[in-house]
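From the methods appendix. Each design record in this collection lists the tokenized structure first, followed by the designed amino acid sequence. Records were kept in a plain field format so they could be parsed without special tools. The example shown here is representative of the layout used throughout.

RECORD:
FOLD TOKENS (93 positions):
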């Protein structure tokens, strides 16, 4: 939500772009390569998440963020007691 340190704004966009610019792009969760050309709502499209959630003291920096498949990110989020979802631009209608 709007706590001032969330995954919004210019800084997060920049981090997200840098993480997704890595080649090859490997999923943090399953270790398989991510096709950067896929886009939402493809379940294999790339997403970026924070390794240490911001809610637990992590920072929105390239070092703390990793790419993953949207599917893997969501599955991981469903398993965690406090899922740390990162909205993808353009997700909302
Ligand atoms: Zn994956």
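DESIGN:
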């Amino acid at each position: 939500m709007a706590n001032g340190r969330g995954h919004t704004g210019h800084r997060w966009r920049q981090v997200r772009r840098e993480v997704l610019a890595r080649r090859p792009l490997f999923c943090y969760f399953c270790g398989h390569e991510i096709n950067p050309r896929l886009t939402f709502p493809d379940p294999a499209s790339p997403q970026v998440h924070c390794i240490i959630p911001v809610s637990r003291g992590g920072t929105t920096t390239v070092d703390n963020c990793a790419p993953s498949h949207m599917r893997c990110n969501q599955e991981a989020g469903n398993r965690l007691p406090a899922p740390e979802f990162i909205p993808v631009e353009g997700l909302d209608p």
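APPENDIX NOTE: The chain has a mean pLDDT of 81.
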